[in-house]
Description:
Layout: H1 3-10, H2 16-27, H3 31-48, H4 51-74
Helix pairs in contact: 1-2, 2-3, 2-4, 3-4
Amino acid sequence: MSKQDLAAKYGTSKSSKQLVNAAIRAELPGGTEALDLYAHCRAMNERFHQPDTEKAYHLAADVVEALAAAIRQRYGLPLRQD
């Protein structure tokens, strides 16, 4: 599969990140919950800046990154470089 397949399935006007997130939600078990938890943890960390919220945010980010890597591999997209 390719990025074109991903775009055809989830919308051509979306960025790669949005396409990957849409695929995570649709194709991977627990993907919706993981992305929702990540967004919640991110907001809590930005608001409170506590060690517990930071740890939860990083754990959720690790899970979402693993899910994104699975989708990127499935569709032949390059892995994100930070």
